[in-house]
């Protein structure tokens, strides 16, 4: 059993990481923004007592020293998995609402660990393919993206709009983490997890149709008949199942040879058309409400990807798109889709 601090435990990805940790027998304290989230998580995992699942309230991860108290534990923490970061486009100030929480939240927890938790040996940070991908270059047919690539976004570009802001927030936060390790030389080793579009089952007690993660919203919209005229393009045509992504976080903490590395965690290609086709087959009653045009792969080709490090070091075997859609549908139906 390992003692683990997980940040942002009620988030879509984090709650699957939490489930993976608990089912493997680890003892977890997760940070949440409010007491309400604490109760929601207790209701989601009623079989785990306070010896296995504890909570620390961190209202604002962008505050200086936000994690100073949360990182203190008896018994002490050995791993920290940092997932807390904003991913939504409903914002008013890109720097204040996206960039600062991501960057300060990441550097802040690293400072808190170094200062208050010398027992911590492994830190896993949820980054994103957004920190790898270069959107200005386009689809780049023939080019292979891997962990060696970085998004060249500048702060001036990042504050232009929420989409660039999100990409910038993930890029700057991850770079700040690696710079911290290089300059501060802490006792712990860092690994980062870089997923593209993340789909998969939700935990119904934690989400509503209005608070779904951005990726799953397109499945919701198809199920609700909101895409009857045309299926929109996917935008990013690679994906991962949230359950495989959660496992990658845990494996990155467990495996010694994962230390100090980035991991591009993707199952492969998909299109919105493929998701729609699967929903039509699985839900015949809504088939007529989903458009049959649009949502295909872009003309002219698309970049390639190298996920060999994730498969070789972390040993992740990826679920199929069909399995993801089949397993996600009933969880969305449970909240009214």
- Judged by helices, strands and strand pairing, the structural class is alpha/beta
What is the percentage of strand-forming residues? 5-15%
> Quick check: average pLDDT?
95
Into which percent range does the helicity of residues fall? 25-40%
Q: Got a strand count?
A: 12
The side-by-side strand order for the widest beta sheet comes to 3-2-1-4-5-7-10
Distance between the termini: 38 Å
Q: Please tell me how large the radius of gyration is.
A: 19 Å
Quickly count the helices.
10
Low-confidence stretches: none
Q: What is the approximate shape?
A: globular
Helix and strand run: EHEHEEHEEHHEEHEHEEHEHH
What topology emerges from the helices and strands here?
Layout: E1 3-7, H1 12-23, E2 27-32, H2 35-44, E3 53-57, E4 79-82, H3 94-116, E5 122-126, E6 144-145, H4 155-158, H5 162-184, E7 189-194, E8 197-199, H6 217-223, E9 238-241, H7 242-254, E10 262-264, E11 268-269, H8 272-282, E12 304-305, H9 308-314, H10 321-333
Parallel strand pairs: 1-2, 1-4, 2-3, 4-5, 5-7, 6-12, 7-10, 8-9
Antiparallel strand pairs: 9-11
Helix pairs in contact: 1-7, 3-5, 6-8, 8-10
């Amino acid at each position: 059993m390992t003692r683990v601090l997980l940040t942002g435990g009620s988030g879509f990805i984090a709650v699957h990481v939490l489930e993976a940790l608990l089912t493997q027998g680890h003892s977890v304290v997760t940070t949440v923004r409010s007491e309400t989230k604490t109760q929601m998580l207790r209701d989601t995992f009623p079989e785990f007592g306070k010896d296995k699942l504890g909570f620390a309230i961190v209202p604002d991860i962008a505050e200086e020293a936000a994690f100073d108290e949360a990182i203190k534990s008896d018994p002490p923490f050995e791993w920290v998995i940092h997932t807390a970061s904003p991913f939504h486009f409903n914002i008013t100030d890109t720097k204040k609402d996206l960039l600062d929480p991501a960057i300060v939240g990441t550097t802040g927890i690293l400072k808190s660990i170094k200062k208050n938790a010398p027992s911590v040996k492994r830190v896993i940070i949820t980054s994103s393919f957004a920190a790898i991908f270069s959107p200005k270059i386009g689809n780049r047919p023939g080019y292979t993206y891997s962990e060696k690539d970085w998004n060249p976004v500048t702060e001036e570009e990042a504050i232009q709009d929420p989409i660039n802001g999100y990409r910038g927030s993930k890029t700057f936060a991850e770079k700040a983490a690696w710079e911290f390790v290089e300059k501060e030389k802490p006792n712990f080793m860092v690994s980062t997890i870089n997923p593209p579009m993340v789909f998969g089952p939700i935990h119904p007690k934690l989400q509503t149709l209005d608070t779904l993660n951005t990726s799953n919203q397109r499945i919701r919209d198809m199920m609700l008949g909101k895409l009857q005229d045309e299926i929109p393009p996917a935008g990013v045509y690679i994906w991962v199942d949230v359950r495989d992504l959660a496992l990658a976080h845990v494996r990155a903490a467990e495996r010694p040879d994962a230390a100090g590395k980035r991991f591009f965690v993707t199952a492969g290609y998909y299109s919105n058309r493929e998701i729609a086709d699967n929903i039509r087959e699985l839900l015949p009653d809504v088939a007529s409400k989903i458009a049959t045009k649009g949502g295909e792969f872009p003309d002219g080709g698309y970049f390639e990807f190298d996920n060999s490090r994730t498969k070789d070091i972390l040993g992740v075997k990826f679920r199929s798109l069909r399995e993801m859609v089949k397993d996600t549908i009933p969880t969305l139906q449970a909240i009214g889709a």
